[in-house]
Amino acid sequence: MKLFLDTADIEEIRTVHRWGVLDGVTTNPTLFAKTTGMSYDEVLKHICGITSGPVSAEVVADDVEGMLAEGRHFAKLADNIVVKVPMSERGLEAISRFKAEGIKTNCTLIFTANQGLLAAKAGASLLSPFVGRVDDINEEGMTVVRELVEIIRFYEIDSEVLTASVRHPRHVTEAALAGSHVATLPFKVFSQMVHHPLTDKGIVQFKRDWEAARAAAAESAAPGSREPARA
Ligand code: G3P
């Protein structure tokens, strides 16, 4: 499963890229609103300079022509831009027009498998079911991912399921087990995935034992001295 970072924060993107596990980035207006000092275009260009993976840039226009104008503009910023379009009747029309123009799209705000099926038929490259927001209303968000993955596989549709609105590491495991092609995660979840209390405790213990062994070796090589022996 590919892992995208769900952020517009350049430092977070640089960090996960350095870990060697970053496959792409998704942004949206809410995430851009958390950044300071740069235009959305500048943020997108920066991100595309860090990763060669897909970088989603979201349109905000309500009408088809407006969505097309914004999306065409984003697509010119870098080769790896994917235009993010909300699920709606106009959104579907925009997605099918982008498809005809060879511009890749990520259909966002998907909450049912049927919405995902429509987006796939319109030609979206990525289908983004929001699992956390479904969980928030006391339903099972991962069901949509499971159903959509099955539909895509059954009909051999050329779209990828991108699990979004990920809130915790368990969502990532469940998305992977469901066969989601991609999951996009906030930086916090990437970081939570790295750590485990027993891993952190084990690192401290290994370090402590290593120091004790070095001290013991130094003591036996030169009794009375606590300096470590040189090899
Ligand atoms: O990828 C979509 C994501 O940004 C939404 O996440 O936590 O606001 O539901 P959330």
List the helices and strands and how they pair.
Layout: E1 2-6, H1 10-19, E2 24-26, H2 29-33, H3 40-50, E3 55-58, H4 64-77, E4 81-86, H5 89-101, E5 105-110, H6 113-122, E6 126-129, H7 131-136, H8 141-154, E7 160-163, H9 169-178, E8 182-185, H10 187-194, H11 197-221
Parallel strand pairs: 1-2, 1-8, 2-3, 3-4, 4-5, 5-6, 6-7, 7-8
Residues 6, 26, 28, 130, 132-133, 164-165, 167, 184 line the site of SN-glycerol-3-phosphate.
Mean pLDDT across all residues, rounded?
Answer: 96
Bound compounds: SN-glycerol-3-phosphate
Low-confidence runs = none
Structural class assignment:
alpha/beta
Q: Per DSSP, what share of the residues sits in E-state strands of 2 or more residues? A: 15-25%
